[in-house]
Specification:
alpha/beta, eight-stranded mixed beta sheet, 6 helices, about 30% strand
Length: about 180
């Protein structure tokens, strides 16, 4: 959930577990899960070339509770669950959502709707200067004037950093502005 995906890595893992499966079978299963509305495919968008890329997409669950029902609660999965919820909400609001690919990393989401665009980074908390720099620098690399947001859960999640609006995830999800 929320990690870049490679059919080869799934196939290799299953082979290491002595189960033979090829890449095309993995893609076929994923396609069936999409058609059953259990998964959403999120493609990568090259921010320099302005085109959709055909590899290394991410998949998000249609209902994040599915993960908990199968794997149980894990504190390390909170950040990816938040990202999943923000993805679903952007889609619900009518945005076409992609992952923003940059030279040295990615923006979590590039959301476009009827000529509007916004960029979103989702993080659970910013506890260190290194994390803060990583989250904001990704958005600062994007040289256009569309709105940019860093969404987080910590209490000090309000304000503006060089034009990037920082806000709590809950406030973003409840806002009618976007």
């Amino acid at each position: 959930m929320g990690n870049t995906f490679s059919a080869k890595s799934i196939s290799d893992y299953l082979k290491s577990e002595h189960r033979k499966i090829d890449n095309e079978t993995v893609y076929s299963y994923l396609e069936k899960l999409e058609k059953a509305y259990l998964l959403h495919r999120c493609s990568r968008y090259d921010l320099q070339g302005k085109e959709i890329l055909k590899t290394q997409e991410k998949f998000y669950l249609a209902d994040p509770a599915l993960r908990y029902s199968v794997l149980g609660y894990n504190p390390d999965s909170v950040a990816s669950s938040l990202e999943n919820v923000v993805y679903l909400e952007l889609c619900r609001r009518g945005y076409e959502v992609n992952i923003g690919k940059m030279a040295d990393g990615e923006a979590d989401f590039v959301a476009q709707r009827q000529g509007e665009k916004l960029y979103v980074q989702v993080t659970q908390e910013i506890r260190s200067e290194k994390t803060e720099q990583r989250e904001y620098d990704r958005l600062l690399e994007i040289k256009d004037n569309y709105p940019k947001y860093v969404l987080r859960t910590d209490e000090f999640a309000r304000g503006n950093y060089e034009g990037i609006k920082s806000m709590r995830v809950a406030d973003f999800l409840l806002s009618r502005e976007y």
